[in-house]
Amino acid sequence: xxxxxxxxxxxxxxxxxxxxxxxxxxxxxxxxxxxxxxxxxxxxxxxxxxxxxxxxxxxxxxxxxxxxxxxxxxxxxxxxxxxxxxxxxxxxxxxxxxxxxxxxxxxxxxxxxxxxxxxxxxxxxxxxxxxxxxxxxxxxxxxxxxxxxxxxxxxxxxxx
Length: 160
Description:
Elements: H1 2-9, E1 14-24, H2 44-56, E2 61-64, E3 67-68, E4 75-78, E5 81-84, E6 87-89, E7 93-98, H3 101-109, H4 115-124, E8 127-138, H5 152-156
Antiparallel strand pairs: 1-7, 1-8, 2-3, 2-7, 4-5, 5-6
């Protein structure tokens, strides 16, 4: 029971089958003068969209470039890099998700999901590749967890 809770909290590595997604900036060598360069690079919201889709499809563990996603994970754009769990990451982005492979694949293949990203992949050459994978190992979350709103006295019976 404790091992299951640790896995759910992300404090231990998890092994299993699932999907691997490769997300990378466009391979187009030359842009037209009228094109917006932002259309050719991976943005943080695209990573969030993929991760949210995978959670919704029943993934039990997810990582991006080795950073485990937990309930406190944040994803921010910082210049030309993306900050995940306070770690700077850059393309290519390797997204691993453990869960029912068929269910995860169905969610990713659904024509209504990730519509903008799939369009950018076709029109601007963003790299979006999905493969069924296994066995996968998703590492444990190794960041800090800041307790902002806790009451030590309520949990221990002792004054904080």
